[in-house]
């Protein structure tokens, strides 16, 4: 009898659990791209107070939606409202200023507020700026008129604000409210203190000027883009249409001519730094050393296989070559240079031993020592705690799919991992190096924020970011794996299977790919939008698969260099290998393998449905490059060289040359106002397809750029893609 009751209880429990599982909701495109239920919470614009004892962040009022600035005390955990957004009133208009970003002065007594921002290319750089004095509770507009300005910054002594307007540099004296124009040659072709399209996009830099540590000088980029070719497209919104035009150098074209100047504010004199006799170069970074008269300059040659570090004298302009990095393929510009307060040394990263590692240099260019070593890679260098002689950095030492925060002594000893959870970690260290804000996520966990001590000890959770909706829906999480290609190379991959996966069934597979040089798709981190859409497809009976082909990042320079001079070679080869691997799995329907991607992933899709069409039934190519001769100079030449010198490589990697091999089902999608990957790419591919009588599907989004952002655009886009997959795969 007892045994009967136990068996009954087990059967009832199993029945209840299955009923509960059956109650899980199925995702819709509207759930993912219209509702806010999966957005979660974040720590908005967390920035350290100058003394390192507290940090501030922006929080929006639930009812009025006014932004306010809150202060979090490290020691106690107390949170208080430091700046009430409802009380920040524009004295000129009487309107409440809805600021969306801010910058602390070094004294912590003034805040530079940024409001009503407008997009310039990808960044919201154009805005109104205001200085708020915390002691006097006084608000002061930086620009006296109605115009928006760019790249406003407080001087280190908080006496002035510098900014860019109409391609010229200005400063405003906070005390006298007077404005001084520093450069006067700004025009459509001459750019001071900011960048042309290609510098901003490919060097990840928009702000083109720097205060000196003593507030007496400003270093800036001057670009002459008159020799850069123009590219135009049609805006169909006006009655008679309009032509939009930008300066956009494609591979092999003339680039902007760059100069680096230092303006001495007291005299108004500009001293031009000696950056060498060669003019066809790039200056991807400048940075003041801790000596206010010494400016560091990173110089790249046109082929981007030689990176020089110069130290220039701000008074004379004379420069000295400190060190050079060279590579048989390409060198990446560096954000990991840290000048020590002792004014004698600096930290630098290099791939010279085959992996990205940290080196300590003396300021005369002599190497003190290599700090990190091994078959793993350093990511970000966060800085140096000179008091404790520690360098803080991120690295993938534990697992290539993960990134952890580490410290190591300046003598190269006592390497310590400060984070433990499996996944990817990003740090924001306090100015006193005693604590840091940690952002963590993994494939199962949306971004969480914590406060940790400098040793990695947890102080407190700041934002758990529990997204309740995830528990309501039938969600499947990625599994990480490796597979071997037929020529014996092990590749990293991840797979999402339906939650009701049955190994005895046959499933169609959709590959989500990118594969560009140095990129990494297979990461143990949270994805949200595409992750949820992939789950929507998994709920409809599809398996989702991604892999990192030869040429991608995280595995050392030799692996990455395989992409050089023929971006598409290993990208498509290894995705075909991925399709072959999938076809051998007993639960995969080998006749129903598809692929999709965006930008470089769109290019991969075009190659898969042409050159690799024997292995892929269906593809969706969003905002795709079709021939890298159509893409910009900096990115393309970094990996392909000049088209004048590598015609065979450009031909080999062009999807236009494989249209005759096309078969299957292809959906081409492009924004008609894409300033990045021009619609020209899709139009040229379409013309080739039409000439060859190859049938395909097409969707254009008028007025939309590379990101395809706009009212309900993502809803329309992903509904379109869902329907296409259901019909054709």
How would you sum up this structure, described in words?
By secondary structure, the protein is of the alpha+beta class. The chain has 4 domains: 41-168, TolB, C-terminal domain (Neuraminidase, 6 Propeller); 182-335, Methanol Dehydrogenase, Chain A (8 Propeller), CATH 2.140.10; 360-442 and 444-467, 6 Propeller (Neuraminidase); 478-728, Alpha/Beta hydrolase fold, catalytic domain (Rossmann fold, 3-Layer(aba) Sandwich), CATH 3.40.50.1820. It is 17% helix and 37% strand. The chain is built from 12 helices and 43 strands. The strands form 9 sheets. Strands 5, 6, 7, 8, 9, 10, 11 and 12 form an 8-stranded antiparallel β-sheet that branches. The longest helix is centred in the N-terminal third of the chain and has 21 residues, at 2-22.
Core attributes:
4 domains; Neuraminidase; 12 helices; eight-stranded antiparallel beta sheet; disordered N terminus; 729 residues; 17% helix; eight-stranded mixed beta sheet; 43 strands; alpha+beta; Methanol Dehydrogenase, Chain A
């Amino acid at each position: 009898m007892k045994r009967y009751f136990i068996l009954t209880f087990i059967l009832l429990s199993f029945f209840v659990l299955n009923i509960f599982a059956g109650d899980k909701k199925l995702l819709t495109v509207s759930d993912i791209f219209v509702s806010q239920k999966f957005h979660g919470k974040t720590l908005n614009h967390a920035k350290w107070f100058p003394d390192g004892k507290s940090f501030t962040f922006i929080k929006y009022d639930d009812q009025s939606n006014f932004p306010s600035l809150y202060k979090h005390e490290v020691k106690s955990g107390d949170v208080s409202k430091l700046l009430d957004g409802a009380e920040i009133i524009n004295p000129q208009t009487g309107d409440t200023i809805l600021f969306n970003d801010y910058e602390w002065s070094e004294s912590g007594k003034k805040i530079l507020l940024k409001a009503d921002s407008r997009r310039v290319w990808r960044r919201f750089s154009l805005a109104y700026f205001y200085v708020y004095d915390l002691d006097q509770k006084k608000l002061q507009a930086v620009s006296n008129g109605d115009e928006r300005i760019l790249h406003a910054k407080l001087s280190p002594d908080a006496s002035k604000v510098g900014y860019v307007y109409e391609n010229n540099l200005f400063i405003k004296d906070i005390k006298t409210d007077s404005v001084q124009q520093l450069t006067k040659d700004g025009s459509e072709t001459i750019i001071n203190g900011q960048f042309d399209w290609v510098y901003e996009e490919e060097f990840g830099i928009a702000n083109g000027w720097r205060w000196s540590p003593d507030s007496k000088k400003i270093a800036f980029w001057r670009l002459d883009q008159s020799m850069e070719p123009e590219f135009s497209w049609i805006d169909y919104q006006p009655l008679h249409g309009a032509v939009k035009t930008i300066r956009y150098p494609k591979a092999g074209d003339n680039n902007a001519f760059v100069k680096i100047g230092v303006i001495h504010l007291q005299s108004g004199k500009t001293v031009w730094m000696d950056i060498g006799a060669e003019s066809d170069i790039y200056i991807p970074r400048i940075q003041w050393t801790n000596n206010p008269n010494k400016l560091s300059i990173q110089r790249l040659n046109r082929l981007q296989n030689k990176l020089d570090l110069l130290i220039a004298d701000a008074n004379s302009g004379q420069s000295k070559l400190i060190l050079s990095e060279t590579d048989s393929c390409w060198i990446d510009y560096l954000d990991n240079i840290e000048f020590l307060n002792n004014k004698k040394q600096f930290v630098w990263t290099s791939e010279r031993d085959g992996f990205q590692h940290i080196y300590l240099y003396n300021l005369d260019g002599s190497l003190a020592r290599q700090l990190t070593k091994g078959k793993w890679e350093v990511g970000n260098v966060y800085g140096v705690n000179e008091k404790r002689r520690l360098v803080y950095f991120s690295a993938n030492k534990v697992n290539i799919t993960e990134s952890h925060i580490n410290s190591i002594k300046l003598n190269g000893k006592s390497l310590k991992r400060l984070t433990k959870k499996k996944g990817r970690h990003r740090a924001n260290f306090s100015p006193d190096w005693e604590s840091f804000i940690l952002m963590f996520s993994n494939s199962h966990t949306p971004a969480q924020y914590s406060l940790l001590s400098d040793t990695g000890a947890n102080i407190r959770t700041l934002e758990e970011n529990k997204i309740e909706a995830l528990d309501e829906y039938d969600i499947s999480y990625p599994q990480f794996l490796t597979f071997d290609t037929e020529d014996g190379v092990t590749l990293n991959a991840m797979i999402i299977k339906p939650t009701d996966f049955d190994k005895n069934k046959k499933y169609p597979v959709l590959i989500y790919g990118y594969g560009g040089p140095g990129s990494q798709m297979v990461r143990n981190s949270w994805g949200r939008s595409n992750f949820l859409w992939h789950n929507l497809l998994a709920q409809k009976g599809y398996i989702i698969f991604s892999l990192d082909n030869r040429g991608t990042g995280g595995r050392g320079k030799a692996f990455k260099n395989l992409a050089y001079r023929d971006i598409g070679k290993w990208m498509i080869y290894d995705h075909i290998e991925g399709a072959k691997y999938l076809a051998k799995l007993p639960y995969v329907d080998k006749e129903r393998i598809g692929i999709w991607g965006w930008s470089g992933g769109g290019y991969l899709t075009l190659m898969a449905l042409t050159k690799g069409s024997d292995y892929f039934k269906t593809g969706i190519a969003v905002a795709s490059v079709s021939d890298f001769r159509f893409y910009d100079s900096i990115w393309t030449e970094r990996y392909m060289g000049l088209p004048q010198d590598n015609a065979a490589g450009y031909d080999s990697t062009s999807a236009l040359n494989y249209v005759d091999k096309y078969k299957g089902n292809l959906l081409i999608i492009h924004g008609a106002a894409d300033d990045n990957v021009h619609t020209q790419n899709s139009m040229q591919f379409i013309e080739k397809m039409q000439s060859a009588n190859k049938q395909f599907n097409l969707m254009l989004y008028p007025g939309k750029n590379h990101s395809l952002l706009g009212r309900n655009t993502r809803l329309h886009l992903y509904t379109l893609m869902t329907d296409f997959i259901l019909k054709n795969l």
